[in-house]
Design brief:
Length: 808
C-alpha cells in the first residue's frame, strides 16, 4: 500500500491510497461544515442538503445521476451529516472509478437542488424524524444538549421535519443554494481516493475533476465555538430500552487532527482478553458490552461517550460499573510505550480488515489509523488521559424505573431529570492487565482420534480454519450467543498473540474463523474446545442476557432491519422463540483448513475430534433444504409498515445464478426510482441480489409510513411484472456490459487471507454451484428473459416477511 497527500491549486486537500490487490476503488468527499453551521432559521438544512444533492446535477440527471448509476453498477454509496462535518462516499468495481468520481464531483459542485426534489426529501426527512423520535441511540446522543452551554448549536434541532422546513419551497431552495455557495470551496473540502490505480493515476483523476470547486481565497472557514459544560450535568432518562450508562467527556485539547489517540483509547476499552477492563465488568456482572462513541469533533475540541450497557436497572449496578470504569482509567495512566505500540498495532489490524470505503469513512470522521511515532503516540495519549477527569464529565443513566418530567432537547421530547449519583464501591477492585505478556503457552496434549479435514490451497503461508453449522442443523440464536460469550476472552487473548479468532454471522451463516501461526491456532483451538465442553455458569448467564437483548432488537430495531435479521433464521429452518437451548453436541459442523502446513492440518484434525458435535458428517454435507413458500408476519415496535420479499433461484444451477445476479442489477436502480422517487412510498426502498443461509435470491425491501403492507407488496409485485417489458428491450450492449461486470466480480483478487478464505467458504456452502467465467459468457439474452418469466410465475417459492398490517 502506498499513500500520498497533495493540495490542489484551489486549496482542496487530497489523500491518495494505492492498494495494488484491491478489487474495489472508493472515494469520499469530506466537507468541514455540518448541521451546526446551518442558519438558525432553517433547522435541518444541512441534513436536507445531504439528501437533495443525490437527486441530480448539472451534467448527470435521471438514470445517469450518481444514485441511479451507482445502483445499476452494484456500487455502495451513502452520506452522513454530523455536527461539524458532512461526507459523501461510494465504492465500486475499480474499472468504474472514473465514471463514478465524475458524477460525485458534479453532484457536489453543480447540484440542481430542484424544487420537486426538495419537496420529496423534506417528506422523507420528516418520516426519518418520527422514526428517530423513538430510537434510543438517537435519544441518548440528543440528551447531550442538556449538559452544554457551548457550542449553543448542541441545544438546537438539526434533524429537520416538515414543521420547520415550512411550505415556502422557493425560500428553502434559496437557503440551500446559499449554503452551497458559502461552504463548497476548496478550502473546506478534503478528498480521499483509494484503489488499485497507481498514485499518479489517482492524482491525475483528482486534479482533472476536483479543481472544478472554487478557490478558498477570500473565503471564511466555518466557525465552531469552544466547549463549555453546565453545572448540572448528570441526568437520568426514562426509557423502556436496555438500561445503560453513558459517560461523556469534554476534550477541549483533542481536535480533529488528534483523533488517533481516540483510536488507541477505543482499543484499550474494547479489549476482551482476560483481566481487561471489559472482562472485569463482565466478571462482576455489571455489563456485557461497552463501546466508545464520538458524537462531536471539531477544531475547538471533541466530545467522547463511553456507553456501558448495564445488566440491570438498579442504580447501584450503574454506580459500581462507573467506579470500575474509573478504576480502569487510573490503570491506563501506567501503560508503557511498548504497550501503547502493541495496542496501536491491534488497531491497525482491525483497520486493515475494513472494506475500502469503510477505511475512508473511519479515517475521515471516525477513529483513524495510527501512523504516529512512539513519541507522538505517547504525547497524544498523555494529553487525552489528562482530560478524562471529573471536571469534564457528564453522565446519563437510562432506566425504566424513574418517572421524569418531559423536556425538549434538540427538538426531541425526553424524560430527563437531574440525578444525585451514589458512590460506587472502591473495595476489592480487580487488578487489570495490559499486554503484551511474557507468559508462554502450555503444552498441548493431542487425542489419538482425528476427524477428516479438507485442506484447501491458499496463496498465504499461515492457515485459516473455518467451522460453520451444517445446513441440516442450524444453530439457534440462543446457542450462538452462549458460544460467543464463552469465546470472548479467548478472542482477546488470541489477538494479543498475533492471531485472529471470530465468531460472527456472514450471509446468514455463523462462521467460526481462526488464523495465525501454527502454535497460536492450535493453542487457541484447544482453549475454545475446553471452554465449549464445560461452559462456566457465569458465561452461560452472559450468553443468555445477550440472547435476550438480540431477541428484543429483532422487534425494537428499525422495522425493515428487524425483518432482514430474521430472514436467515427463517431460511435455515431455525426454530425461533425456543425456551431452552439445543445442546451444542447435537449440532453438526462443517470445517476446512485454508492453507497452512501439514503439521497444522494433523494437529487440528486430532483436536477437532474433541469438538462438541459432529465434524464434516457426510449426510450433513449432502443435505439441501427444499424451501416451501413462507408468509411470515413478525412483530415490530415501529408504526411503519415494512415488507421484505425474497425470491430464491428457481433452479440450483450456475446459469440461473448468473441470470439472477444480472436481473438484480437491472432491477435495483429502477426499483428505487419507481417506489422511492416517483411514487415516494417509503424512505427505505432497496432491491439487490443476496445470499442468505445458503440460499441465493433477489431481495426487495420497503419501509413506509404512509402505505400498508398489502399496498407495498402489491407495488412490488407490479414492479416485477412490469420489468418483463424492460428485460425484453435490453440492448445487446447493455447486456454485455452487465456480463462483463459480473465476470470481473468473480475474477478479482481478494485483499487478505481472512476475506479470501471466508468468501471461498461461503461460495462453497451455497446451494447453487459457483459461478465461472464460462457460465457467464454462455448466458444469452433469451436465457435471461426466460428466467425473468420464471420469476414472474413464482416458479420458486417466494418468501414474504412483513410486520403486522396496520391501518393506513
Amino acid at each position: 500500500m502506498i499513500q500520498k497527500r497533495l493540495q490542489l491549486a484551489n486549496g482542496l486537500r487530497v489523500n491518495l491510497t494505492h492498494s495494488p490487490q484491491a478489487s474495489h476503488a472508493a472515494a469520499l468527499f469530506h466537507l468541514s461544515a455540518g448541521s451546526h453551521h446551518e442558519p438558525e432559521m432553517w433547522p435541518g438544512l444541512a441534513h436536507l442538503f445531504e439528501h437533495v444533492v443525490f437527486a441530480g446535477s448539472k451534467h448527470y440527471q435521471g438514470t445517469q445521476r450518481l444514485m441511479s448509476w451507482a445502483q445499476a453498477e452494484g456500487a455502495r454509496l451513502n452520506a452522513t451529516t454530523l455536527p461539524t462535518t458532512t461526507a459523501w462516499f461510494f465504492d465500486i468495481a475499480a474499472p468504474k472509478l472514473v465514471d463514478g468520481f465524475a458524477r460525485l464531483v458534479d453532484m457536489l459542485a453543480h447540484p440542481l437542488l430542484a424544487a420537486d426534489a426538495i419537496v420529496q426529501e423534506t417528506a422523507i426527512i420528516d418520516a426519518e424524524f418520527r422514526m428517530l423520535s423513538t430510537d434510543i441511540d438517537t435519544l441518548c446522543e440528543v440528551s447531550l444538549g442538556a449538559a452544554w452551554v457551548s457550542p449553543a448549536a448542541l441545544t438546537r434541532f438539526h434533524v429537520g421535519n416538515l414543521a420547520h422546513f415550512g411550505k415556502d419551497i422557493d425560500a428553502l431552495q434559496h437557503a440551500l443554494r446559499d449554503y452551497h455557495q458559502q461552504y463548497f470551496h476548496g478550502g473546506n473540502l478534503t478528498l480521499w481516493l483509494s484503489g488499485p490505480q497507481s498514485i499518479d493515476e489517482l492524482a491525475a483523476l483528482a486534479t482533472q475533476y476536483a479543481t472544478v470547486f472554487s478557490s478558498a481565497q477570500g473565503k471564511q472557514p466555518p466557525v465552531t465555538q469552544p466547549l463549555t459544560l453546565r453545572p448540572e450535568r448528570s441526568f437520568s432518562m426514562q426509557s423502556g430500552a436496555t438500561p445503560r450508562l453513558q459517560l461523556s467527556y469534554m476534550l477541549p485539547e483533542t481536535h480533529r487532527l488528534d483523533a488517533p489517540s481516540l483510536t488507541l483509547l477505543r482499543q484499550f476499552l474494547t479489549d476482551e482478553a482476560q483481566n481487561s477492563l471489559l472482562a472485569a465488568l463482565r466478571t462482576q456482572g455489571y455489563c456485557d458490552t461497552l463501546q466508545l462513541l464520538l458524537p462531536y469533533c471539531s477544531e475547538n475540541g471533541s466530545i467522547i461517550s463511553v456507553e456501558i450497557m448495564l445488566n440491570d436497572a438498579r442504580p447501584e449496578t450503574a454506580a459500581h460499573a462507573e467506579a470500575l470504569f474509573q478504576h480502569g482509567l487510573r490503570h491506563l495512566r501506567s501503560v508503557t510505550t511498548l504497550q501503547l505500540r502493541h495496542y496501536a498495532n491491534l488497531a491497525a489490524q482491525s483497520f486493515s480488515q475494513l472494506s475500502p470505503v469503510d477505511k475512508l469513512r473511519t479515517t475521515a470522521f471516525g477513529f483513524p489509523p495510527i501512523v504516529q511515532s512512539d513519541a507522538e503516540l505517547l504525547a497524544g495519549w498523555k494529553t487525552l488521559l489528562g482530560q478524562l477527569n471529573a471536571d469534564n464529565l457528564t453522565r446519563l443513566w437510562v432506566t425504566p424505573n424513574v418517572d421524569n418530567s418531559i423536556r425538549c432537547v434538540q427538538g426531541f421530547e425526553l424524560g430527563l431529570a437531574p440525578i444525585s449519583w451514589p458512590s460506587g464501591s472502591t473495595a476489592d477492585l480487580p487488578l487489570l492487565t495490559f499486554y503484551p505478556q511474557n507468559s508462554a503457552p502450555g503444552r498441548l496434549d493431542f487425542p489419538t482420534e482425528k476427524v477428516s479435514l479438507p485442506q484447501i490451497k491458499s496463496e498465504y503461508s499461515e492457515g485459516v480454519l473455518i467451522l460453520s453449522p451444517a445446513a441440516k442443523s442450524p444453530l439457534p440464536l440462543r446457542n450462538a450467543h452462549q458460544i460467543l460469550a464463552g469465546l470472548r476472552a479467548i478472542i482477546g487473548d488470541c489477538a494479543h498473540r498475533g492471531g485472529n479468532l471470530s465468531f460472527e454471522r456472514h450471509q446468514g451463516q455463523w462462521l467460526l474463523q481462526l488464523s495465525g501461526s501454527d502454535d497460536v491456532i492450535l493453542s487457541t483451538l484447544s482453549a475454545l474446545i475446553v471452554q465449549l465442553l464445560a461452559m462456566p455458569k457465569t458465561l452461560q448467564e452472559q450468553g443468555e442476557r445477550q440472547y435476550l437483548l438480540a431477541e428484543k432488537a429483532l422487534q425494537s430495531d428499525i422495522a425493515i432491519r428487524c425483518l432482514l435479521n430474521q430472514l436467515p433464521r427463517l431460511l435455515s429452518g431455525e426454530v425461533t422463540g425456543e425456551r431452552e437451548a439445543t445442546h451444542i453436541s447435537r449440532i453438526s459442523w462443517n470445517a476446512a483448513l485454508y492453507g497452512g502446513s501439514s503439521v497444522l492440518l494433523e494437529g487440528i484434525s486430532h483436536l477437532l475430534s474433541l469438538f462438541p458435535g459432529d465434524i464434516n458428517d457426510e449426510a450433513a454435507r449432502a443435505y439441501v433444504p427444499h424451501a416451501a413458500r413462507i408468509d411470515a408476519i413478525l412483530p415490530t415496535d415501529s408504526k411503519d409498515a415494512a415488507v421484505l420479499l425474497f425470491c430464491p433461484l428457481p433452479e440450483q444451477t450456475a446459469v440461473c445464478l448468473a441470470a439472477w445476479r444480472i436481473l438484480a442489477s437491472f432491477f435495483e436502480p429502477r426499483f428505487f426510482q419507481r417506489l422511492r422517487v416517483e411514487k415516494n412510498i417509503g424512505y427505505v426502498v432497496t432491491c439487490r441480489f443476496m445470499q442468505s443461509a445458503g440460499e441465493s435470491g433477489i431481495m426487495f425491501a420497503v419501509q413506509s409510513p404512509s402505505h400498508s403492507t398489502e399496498q407495498i407488496l402489491a407495488e412490488i409485485r407490479q414492479f416485477i411484472v412490469d420489468m418483463q417489458a424492460i428485460i425484453r428491450e435490453i440492448s445487446p450492449i447493455d447486456f454485455n456490459e452487465k456480463c462483463a461486470a459480473l465476470r470481473h466480480s468473480i475474477e478479482i483478487v481478494e485483499q487478505g487471507k481472512l476475506e479470501q478464505s471466508r468468501e471461498s467458504w461461503l461460495n462453497a456452502h451455497t446451494y447453487a454451484p459457483p459461478l465461472t467465467a464460462e457460465t457467464i459468457s454462455g448466458l444469452t439474452l433469451s436465457t435471461l428473459q426466460h428466467f425473468q418469466q420464471l420469476l414472474v410465475q413464482e416458479k420458486a417459492p417466494w418468501w414474504i416477511v412483513s410486520n403486522p398490517p396496520s391501518l393506513k
